[in-house]
């Protein structure tokens, strides 16, 4: 079963036209807002339809009840996470210096949670596990396996057991801090907590996959975007040296 067919399994009718697909996405975003505001138990399809600005009959064309809507939200979140895993598990990311690699991974996760559906699904997984139909602990194990695979690529001398243990600590600790961040209404504090995840992972993993242990991590400065070595210094930002790539024209710290 493909991801597209899997994600449509909770739909009563699969939208064929772009207008229908956009309506479904609007309903899912509205449902996320309603579940976030009043909770799953108090939420109703009428509240969701009103939030989406659509008639209740239009909602029922695609979803028979709120359980089906939430399941569609689950599947949408899974698609986004697996797409992120596929994009992150590449030599371009894995072979970066440790701090830059962790920053890229944490930033990718944070971008997923900027989307209301994924944010609500993640929070509800830890608050109301009983309402889930598609996501279970196996997804957490997939995240651990994904992380362990990256650790093994960074340092082939680590055993499978070591990689698995390190990955388990990284995933569970990151989830705990991310949950606290997503539940906090203060945007600045959420950003500080997200930064703390990065600092935590770098400190924890440094002895095991630090740059000084690796022969495959780049030893010369390269552009983060195109890997070119043709760089020029371009001033400072917050006390750190900035560089300008002469090939792609992009800047980075």
TrEMBL record:
Entry annotated with the keyword DNA-binding: yes
Organism listed in the record: Nostoc edaphicum CCNP1411
Region (Disordered): 1-22
Keyword DNA-binding found: yes
InterPro entries: Homeodomain-like_sf, HTH-type_TetR-like_transc_reg, HTH_TetR, TetR_C_15
Top-level taxonomic group: Bacteria
Species lineage: Bacteria, Bacillati, Cyanobacteriota, Cyanophyceae, Nostocales
Cited Pfam families: TetR_C_15 (PF17918), TetR_N (PF00440)
Protein name per its UniProtKB record: TetR/AcrR family transcriptional regulator
DNA-binding region: 44-63
Keywords of the record: DNA-binding
Domain HTH tetR-type: 21-81
Molecular functions (GO terms): DNA-binding transcription factor activity; transcription cis-regulatory region binding
């Amino acid at each position: 079963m493909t991801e597209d067919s899997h994600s449509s399994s909770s739909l009563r009718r699969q939208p064929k036209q772009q207008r229908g697909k956009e309506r479904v996405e609007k309903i899912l975003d509205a449902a996320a807002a309603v579940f976030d505001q009043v909770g799953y138990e108090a939420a109703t399809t009428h509240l969701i339809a009103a939030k989406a600005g659509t008639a209740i009959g239009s909602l029922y064309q695609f979803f028979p009840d709120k359980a089906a809507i939430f399941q569609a939200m689950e599947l949408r979140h899974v698609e986004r996470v697996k797409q992120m895993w596929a994009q992150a598990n590449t030599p371009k990311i894995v072979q970066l210096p440790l701090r830059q690699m962790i920053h890229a991974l944490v930033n990718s996760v944070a971008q997923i949670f900027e989307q209301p559906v994924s944010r609500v699904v993640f929070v509800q997984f830890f608050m109301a596990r009983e309402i889930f139909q598609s996501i279970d602990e196996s997804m957490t194990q997939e995240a651990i396996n994904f992380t362990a695979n990256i650790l093994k690529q960074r340092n082939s001398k680590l055993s499978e057991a070591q990689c698995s243990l390190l990955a388990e600590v990284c995933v569970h600790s990151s989830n705990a801090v991310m949950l606290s961040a997503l539940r906090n209404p203060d945007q600045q504090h959420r950003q500080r907590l997200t930064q703390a995840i990065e600092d935590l992972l770098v400190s924890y993993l440094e002895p095991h996959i630090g740059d000084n242990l690796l022969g495959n991590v780049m030893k010369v400065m390269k552009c983060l975007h195109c890997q070119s070595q043709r760089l020029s210094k371009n001033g400072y930002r917050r006390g750190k040296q900035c560089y300008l790539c002469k090939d792609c024209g992009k800047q980075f710290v």
